[in-house]
Amino acid sequence: MAKYTLADFGQQFPDDDACLLYLFEKRYGQHGPVCACGKRDRFHRVAGRKSFACAWCGAQISPTAGTIFDHSPTPLTLWFMAMFFMCSNKNGVAALELKRQLGVTYKTAWRMAKSIRQLMHDDTDPDKLKGTVEGDETYCGGKRTGGKRGRGAPGKTPVVGFVERGGRVRVKVITRVTTAQVFTFLTKSIERGSTVYTDELAVYNYARRWGYDHDRVNHRRWEYVRGDVHTNTIEGFWSQMKRSIDGTHHQVSPKWLHLYASEHAWRYSRRKATRALLLSLLDLAAKALPTAQAA
Fold first, then answer.
1. Class (C level, CATH) for 132-253
2. Three-state secondary structure readout of the chain
3. pLDDT-wise least confident of 57-71, 133-147, 243-257
4. pLDDT tens column, 166-225
């Protein structure tokens, strides 16, 4: 992962003006958009407002309009710093920690973290996973002493995931581990002709019929590795995700689990990136959100 320190952050984003200018250039280009009057390349900062005005006609545009920063009284430097913390910590950051570090209320910290996770969740990579892909499912929540663990335990929320060896990961919270739900996500996530390794769960029986080279390990018979066939990579991802939830957040509501899982997948998929994760996330933040999410 590219090295991007707190000192780098402070140098690049020392104040709100620097943050707003960054969003302006990311959203409209270095010279700005074509104004309604037909002119461009003449926009100046409006004092006291998060906007720029056309030097020809005075029309104003706001780089934050329609984004997660829209209508937020929280300074942009605090938004950017929250994003920096969430990108820099592989186990995530709790809202209480953001509250302490940023000096905001818990309600504000929670809302900021939720909005940032939505950016990570809505980052749709059009390229499907390919090559050698491992698939598995896990179960989150419902922690209790005694009783059944894992598959079939009451109160658990299932999550299915697929990971390229050495590459990206896709995860999705589902209601039940059924062939229909798993294969809808599998075919959407993995390129046909790829090699898919799973455990012995019956929902994967149709993988070859759908055009995948499929093999499996049988965990019930204590088989975990057979040559190149194993699911250790995706199980390692689950282990790290659960450590994040248990150690950082302690517990996560099923309602919001998809955002926490997507946040973890977003960072994992970019663990070898040569560009700072914060800058990649800011690229997403500079785009206007869908209407429903912006509201």
1. alpha beta
2. CCCCCHHHHHHHCCCHHHHHHHHHHHHHCCCCCCCCCCCCCCEEECCCCCCEEECCCCCEECCCCCCCCCCCCCCHHHHHHHHHHHHHCCCCCCHHHHHHHHCCCHHHHHHHHHHHHHHHHCCCCCCCECCEEEEEEEEECCCCCCCCCCCCCCCCEEEEEEEECCCCEEEEECCCCCHHHHHHHHHHHECCCCEEEECCCHHHCCCCCCCCEEEECCHHHCCCEECCEECHHHHHHHHHHHHHHHHHHCCCCCCCHHHHHHHHHHHHHCCCCCCCHHHHHHHHHCCCCCHHHHC
3. 133-147
4. 999 999 999 999 999 999 999 999 999 999 999 999 999 989 998 999 999 998 889 899
Q: For 230-239, how does the pLDDT look when each residue is reduced to its tens digit (9 = 90+)?
A: 999 999 999 9
Q: How many CB atoms lie within 10 A of CB 114?
A: 13
Residue ranges, comma separated, of all CATH 3.30.420 domains in the chain are: 132-253
